Amino acid sequence: MAFQGKKLINNPDDVVTEFIEGLVETYPGLQYLDGFPQIKVVLRADVERGAYDKVAVISGGGSGHEPAHAGFVGSGMLTAAVSGDVFASPPVDSILAAIRAVTGPMGCLLIVKNYTGDRLNFGLAAEQAKSEGYKMEMVIVGDDCALPPPRGIAGRRGLAGTILVHKVAGAAADAGLSLADVAAEAKHASEVVGTMGVALSVCTLPGQVTSDRLGPKQMELGLGIHGEPGVAVVDLQPVDVVVEHVFKQILSQETQYLPITRGSNAVLLINGLGATPIMELMIAARKAVPELQLEYGIAVDRVYTGTLMTSLDMAGLSITIMKSDENILKRLDAPTKAPAWPVGSEGNRPPAKFPVPVPPSPSVKDDEILAQPQELSKQGCILEAAIEASATEIINLKDILNEWDGCDTACVSNS
């Protein structure tokens, strides 16, 4: 049965503008254009109009994918992000306002996810900006590997792999490259990245009812980040099985969505879709890294695990593989002040991880750790029996104790 989704919001019509206001209050390096509610643009606070001496990198799209895209604004990544309403492409005027606000003599690159509305509106804005004298380039990202060919009218959807393209392009621009070179690096990155998502639930839009399309023991393969239907609805599977299936799709030699073969190097991104605990993402990462290396012979250079591109409160994850090379790794490792980029992920990955041995107790000698226990006295046997009986009784009470432990103060006071 469908029911009204619960949200910690005010007016559903104000969620995007109020999100932006909270974002800039949190991060001093960000600012927004004074054009609410029609124009919803977050930009770097240190960029003055017309004076920016590097290539401006702008992205955006419908809201509801936070922290994308505004959370990736900062030096070394996006110069500005344009937000539409929830799951709606931003209007042309908003995109134009962003271009005019941050673009200097070096020009502007637009990075656009492959959706009809985004391609249309960003494309129209780019043409209008060119007519005003701005140097413009646009790169389309379609990294979805879930849908088999034919790929539909629009083609492959833009998913979490777009974030890696943002980082590559932003670092190239920050290094002072020309517009043509920044666009070329972004285009190359977009051609060597593949993503597939798996959802345990669909998302709830602010002010709307929650869909009951997925049952309690079902999951959907290839669900889109706007809640679009995926490839199939199947019974809930363990995450190890899910990871194996996703890799088969992304690395399929039949579709050849990703130009990567045994012996290649890659970057791995495990992305939460909004309501997935970090515990579950790390369990997926634990399977994904050795699976990619041992089963497919692909060396993993970097691993990014976190919530980077969401679908509101959707439970599930997406996995992204990007074929890496020396230049891509240099761009991913370059410093950035974008608040949502995983700051703890820079640098080389060790080739293997081994558990650290448990240190022995300082009161016990090494040769005593594995020694057989001495024979107990009569009193010792009595004590041992008492301890075992007590432990057994506690184990038998496990369910009751766990129930008490999970009960809050109100529950205790009412019992």
Automatic annotation (TrEMBL):
Residues 11-341 form the DhaK domain. GO terms for molecular function: ATP binding; kinase activity; phosphotransferase activity, alcohol group as acceptor. It holds the Pfam family Dak1. The keyword Kinase applies. Keywords: ATP-binding, Kinase, Nucleotide-binding, Transferase. One of its GO terms (biological process) is carbohydrate metabolic process. It comes from the Eukaryota. InterPro entries: DhaK_dom (IPR004006), Dihydroxyacetone_Kinase (IPR050861). Belongs to the dihydroxyacetone kinase (DAK) family. This is DhaK domain-containing protein. It comes from Urochloa decumbens.
